[in-house]
Amino acid sequence: MYEEDLKSVLNAAQSPDDSLRLRESYVRKWVQDEVLFQHALQNLTDSLKDKDDLLDIYYRSLIRYEYEKGLINERHDTSVSKKQIVAYYEEYKESFILEQKVCKSIFVLLPPDAPKQELPIEWIEGQSVEDLDSLNKYCVRYGAKFNIADNKWFYLDDVLTEMQLPLNFSVSQSATPFRVTDSTKTSVMKILALRNPGDQMPLPMASSSIRAIIKNKGKVEFINKMENDVLSEAEKKRLFEIYE
Q: pTM of the full predicted structure?
């Protein structure tokens, strides 16, 4: 190592003390890496020291990877439509089976000193725009945890944990919200929908996984097409010959 090798490292220093610390740390790491490399080199058999073929494979893979990544970013459309997600969900239903209970639920966790704790029940039952607005304002002010959206799916165990209820607490789909109160909190819940293990996973819960699958599949198809196009172009231009 030479002094000029340290210039780029020391440029990041903001004071003489920083410069000294960076210098010592960098030199020590460089020495450690070099000593370990030399030690390994001395103790490997001659056959294992020759890594030219592996280095060539790695170099080729790295160049190809960087090219393909840039090509995907520049030319490949990674957007996935709702229609594509629904179509995949319908075609591969058996791949989206629940292993746990899930639910749509409105829930509110209140501290014991929250005022007028009967009001959330009334607003949840009412479900008018005014009721939901009042519920939201109340929850923002007093709720420790809450969800008032009626279109979100949750794992039931997660909801029970949020509401500080035992995981074996019995719940069922119902038009009526319920309230559980003790000395430490009040839990208000309404189960709007419930699905059991073995049922099909709701589409909203499967969407993110499906989107990732479709994106990955699209990338693979894009790269395969690019490879075939490059090979076809090389054949047309007679850039290679095969001798038999």
A: 0.70
